[in-house]
Amino acid sequence: ASRDSLAGRRFVLTAGPTQEPLDPVRFLGNRSSGRMGFALAGALARAGADVDLVAGPVQLTTPPGVKRTDVQTAEEMLAAVLARLEGATGFIGVAAVADYRPVDVATHKIKKSDAVLELRLQPNPDILARVASDPRRPELVMGFAAETRDLETAARGKLAAKDLDLIAANRVGEGLAFDQPDNALEVFSADQCWTLPRQSKQLLAERLVDIIVETLDRHSTD
Ligand code: PMT
């Protein structure tokens, strides 16, 4: 994408993991480092877009030109996204949002004992599906899918079920995806598919911006 191909357009992105507290010192989390989402936020900003990045707990510096908001839980991430949705051209969910959170959050540190400890979990809101069904739905809604098997079927299922314009699917493992410098992606729209072979998340982000620009161009000529 050229330096100004997204000028005047605003994107809201999520990146990183969410952490769901169990007690004052413990949480449920996952291995997302935030790298993929931060790389995409930086690449969109270089293409001239205004970028609002809602980040879970990560150890990364904010890319130049990106406005960052830090959150911890899925519910905080949802609230931060909804507060920034009005007037956005695009929403891209790169975050690995926890699907469940503990039903009870202990006020005091849970004590160790010899008994089995059972955790009860309740589903978290699905941020991506919520954005795609909002009256203020951005023109482009894009998700990511992390899969350990049946990559294409699972990704196409999420594209349709969540009413997305694009989904970028990554296979987890093989030194790719979570907490790795490199990734490989298969990107799907309802009628197109792009294969982005293994490369750095920085370079992948540049390719994703090309696909995003192409998709918005197609929308405007349809
Ligand atoms: O952060 P890195 O270490 O660089 O790793 C990058 C990544 C592997 C985390 C990233 O490339 C990726 O695949 N992100 C999505 C991971 C994921 O949780 O996928 P999912 O299949 O569970 O979710 C599908 C989509 O729904 C995602 O866009 C996710 O943001 C969204 N979702 C999921 C659950 C939920 N409660 N709310 C959501 O919005």
Automatic annotation (TrEMBL):
Its EC number is 4.1.1.36, 6.3.2.5. Keywords: Decarboxylase, Flavoprotein, FMN, Ligase, Lyase, Magnesium, Metal-binding, Multifunctional enzyme. Its cofactor is Mg(2+); FMN. Pathway: Cofactor biosynthesis; coenzyme A biosynthesis; CoA from (R)-pantothenate: step 3/5; Cofactor biosynthesis; coenzyme A biosynthesis; CoA from (R)-pantothenate: step 2/5. It catalyses: (R)-4'-phosphopantothenate + L-cysteine + CTP = N-[(R)-4-phosphopantothenoyl]-L-cysteine + CMP + diphosphate + H(+); N-[(R)-4-phosphopantothenoyl]-L-cysteine + H(+) = (R)-4'-phosphopantetheine + CO2. It comes from the Bacteria. Binds 1 FMN per subunit. One of its GO terms (molecular function) is phosphopantothenoylcysteine decarboxylase activity. GO terms for biological process: coenzyme A biosynthetic process; pantothenate catabolic process. Catalyzes two sequential steps in the biosynthesis of coenzyme A. In the first step cysteine is conjugated to 4'-phosphopantothenate to form 4-phosphopantothenoylcysteine. In the second step the latter compound is decarboxylated to form 4'-phosphopantotheine. Catalyzes two steps in the biosynthesis of coenzyme A. In the first step cysteine is conjugated to 4'-phosphopantothenate to form 4-phosphopantothenoylcysteine, in the latter compound is decarboxylated to form 4'-phosphopantotheine. This is Coenzyme A biosynthesis bifunctional protein CoaBC. The gene is coaBC. The chain holds residues 184 to 405 of 409 of the full protein.
